Amino acid sequence: MNSIFSNTKEAFSLKSNFELSRAQFLFKIIENKTLVKISTFLTKIALKTYLPVTPIIKMSVFNHFCGGISELDCIPIIKKMYQKKVSSVLDFSTEAFNSEEEFDSCYDKKLSIIEFAKNRTEIPFTVFKPTCLGSIDLFKKKTNISRYERIFSKYFR
After folding, report:
1. Is the model's pLDDT at 1 over the cut of 60?
2. What is the pTM for the complete model shown?
3. Which of 9, 13, 66, 113 is the most exposed place for a label (fewest CB within 10 A)?
4. Whether residue 26 is found in the same domain as residue 83
């Protein structure tokens, strides 16, 4: 693994100077916890009040961490990375849904991603948060039940 990253020119060859400068700036901002809290708060307000901040988000954070908004949208970056022997991981990480329709939609999206990735050598596996498949309370309840089962199982074998 060290040999992959020992040549920084090769390691960063997929990125332009602008993209590298943007990444450096972005990580400097992310280092500052206070600034992250303030910007997260302001972004939520801006989105709830329909202020036009989406292009700013897409140009900065989204484009750095995301390959696209759909599986097909990600294909150019997936192929570009794979030419350098870098595999991709599709990660659909959403959560905090509250309705059965949202849970079902999330489930369908996860299946779609798995189907998209299953025959592509450049995507060795997929990742997702299971918390979008059910209510947070359900997961908490199951976690507590499992914890108690482990505690009591040693006494009731």
Report:
1. no
2. 0.68
3. 9
4. no
